[in-house]
Amino acid sequence: MIERRKLAKWLVVLVALHGLIACAGFFAPYDPVEQDRELPYARPMKLHLIDTQGRVHMRPFFYPLRIREGSFDQYDEDIARAMSLKFFGEGPRYRLLGLVPCRLHLFGAAGARICLLGTDGYGRDQLSRILYGGQVSLLAGLLGAGITLSLGLGIGAAAGYFGGWRDEVLMRLTEPFLALPWLYMLLGLRAFLPLAVSPLEAFLLIVIVIGAVGWARPARLVRGVVLSAKERDFVRAARGFGAPNRYLLWRHVLPETSSVLLTQAAILIPQYVLAEMTLSFLGLGVPEPLASWGNLLANLQQYSVLTSYWWMYLPALAIVPFFLGYLGLASALQEWADPFKVEGGRERSMG
Amino acid sequence: MRFLSRRLIHAALVLFGVSILTFLFTSLAPGDYFDEMRLNPQIAPETVAALRAQYQLDRPLPVRYARWLNSVVHGDLGYSFSYNSPVGPLLWVRARNTLLLTVTATLLSWGLALPLGVWSAEHLGGFRDSLISWMMAGLMAVPDLALALGLLLFAARSGWFPTGGLASLGFESLSPMNELRDLTLHMVLPVVVLVLTALPLLVRHVRAAMAGVLDAPFLRAAQGHGIPRRRLLYRYALPAAANPLISLFGFSIGALLSGSLLVEVVMSWPGIGPLLVEAILSRDLYVVVGGVLLSTLFLVVGNFVADLFLYWADPRIRVGPVAK
Questions:
Q1: Cα distance from B99 to chain A (closest Cα, Å)?
Q2: Nearest-neighbour CA in chain B from A59: distance (Å)
Q3: Which of residues 155-184 of B touch A (CB under 8 A)?
Q4: Are the beta carbons of A310 and B153 separated by less than 8 Å?
Q5: Looking at the complex, does the CB of residue B31 fall below 8 Å from at least one CB of chain A?
């Protein structure tokens, strides 16, 4: 029972986090590619409740930033103009969940831009870019993990169920994939795919690359489960009754692998999100103007950005709650699948 | 000895497989280093064709692979197009720097993980155990990219550590003592990142392995004999728990190599990582293949060292049939 409750808790956390990113359009005040050349590298704006005269406002308000004379990235608060925050107001158009056209935003302001996490070199709102970038990064992780797990399931089940030379060949094939450091593998594979492509193509490309690299470990785990499952009495009985292979696999053998697959998914997804971040950070992933957590961080490779604009580091922190959530989910899943095992035997699957 | 020779053959096979894999990817590659030249109207198509013929890019794949393999066996890793020099020496300098980083990080992380894990297992379920577990879970939730950038940010703002590179300007003019000091200062940040990202996994495994052994009857007997606690833990219990940990040692090298690639790029450490990324971006074929192969070699050597350890530490392998 305790395992169940733990599992439910982590699932709720993860659903909430993903919901936040999935509805990025609603939570983000601006479009992620909307530029404001008046506000490059503006620092995060502060929200106030008490103004300079000591009056308390009911709504949080902010002072718009004004560029300091003779500088290009130093700002002063324009204390004369207190702009109050507008909740649930109309703002730029977006599509909710990519489908429903919508203009409703959680917050916004009329007359001046409110950038709670600052802006980048083109004056694009960092908060909006982080939220929208999460969509790209998380989707890459989810799709990549989906590809890996289907490859692993197919190959592992074929090896385990049919055995013989097929098993031998497939398992030999996993060895170099298990042996290589995954990042080298990722780069090696990425090296020989086209570099200059449209953002969408680049996204699909790296999803496939990420998904194709990690199949070996799930395949081995699935094979192990299938090997033991196919010798179970009820499977033998079904075979004795003349059930065809396809039925046996689909009905009796593959369902046994579900807990292994779920646990693997919880381990793989955050790693694949990180893989996307790493590739994009290195300039091999999703290109501008599309935002992803990785290419947002790529700005930090310029030394001047690193020293002067600390808020450009914030996208790196965005992944931490997701990592925490998935780690919790993975350990809860393991306890749920095998409550008597001493915890601690978990390996990172991408080595 | 049969065990070791088997592992050696296995290692060679892995290397061979990886070289074929990386070469195979090249055949899938659209375009090569000379594509940009072809777009340049000032360079005659014949020149480009001659250059491609010179580097034998116009030959079919198996021929290229065979020739490359032949030259690798003779110690020549091919030629870098963009550096205009042989790949071997180029990689060698970088490999030394990468090794400096990874070997230090491996030693440090194991040197920390063993006592922490043993300590945690000794107080299994207690306050100290859960304190360590929580700390490790916290570390695990911070990915290496975030950690490396965060530390770099910290270094840039505090000015306590150099923000990248391997040596300061004017390194050559320093005295040997100061040279060492300068190098150490530059190494601190990358090594800290590598150690901190490797640590949680290692500590968990050490703890789990030790927890399994500490209940064993022979240890209770030893305790009953009045053998001091530290000797009991490190002299008696740890060797018994060593088997899975030694396999993990080989595995941790792979993880560290991956991690170090990223850390090197972030902290501009002149190792294999930045070279490889540059080579990929400019389609410098032999540098990529050589770099991937070299890191596989490190990994295979690391795993072989782990196997040697295993052979030394586990008498079952020496006498019985090969366990796995």
A1: 15
A2: 34
A3: 156-157, 163
A4: yes
A5: yes
Q: What is the pLDDT of residues B248-269, one digit of tens each?
A: 887 788 778 878 888 888 888 8
Q: What Å distances lie between residue A342 and B61, B74, B212, CA to CA?
A: 50, 51, 9
Strands A56-62 and A48-50 turn out to be antiparallel
Q: Say if CB A82 and CB A50 are below 8 A apart.
A: no
Q: How far apart are the first and last CA of chain A?
A: 33
Residues of chain A in contact with residue B157, where contact means CB-CB under 8 angstroms, are 307, 310
Identify which of B22, B70, B60 has the alpha carbon closest to the alpha carbon of residue A184.
B22
Whether A324 and chain B come into contact, CB under 8 Å, resolves to yes
Query: Which three-class secondary structure state does DSSP give residue B60?
Result: coil
In which band, very low, low, confident or very high, does the pLDDT at A143 lie, cut at 50, 70 and 90? very high
Identify all chain A residues contacting B21, using CB atoms and an 8 Å cutoff: 176, 188
| Better pLDDT: B83 or A15 | A15
**How many CB contacts within 8 angstroms connect chain A with chain B?**
144
| Pair of tokens at residue A104 | 């409703």
For B15-32, how does the pLDDT look when each residue is reduced to its tens digit (9 = 90+)? 888 778 777 766 566 556
Looking at this predicted complex, what is its ipTM? Answer: 0.80
Q: How many residues does chain B have?
A: 324
Cβ of residue B26 closer than 8 Å to a chain A Cβ: yes
**Predicted model pTM:** 0.82
Whether residue B18 and residue A179 make contact (CB cut-off 8 A), yes or no, is yes
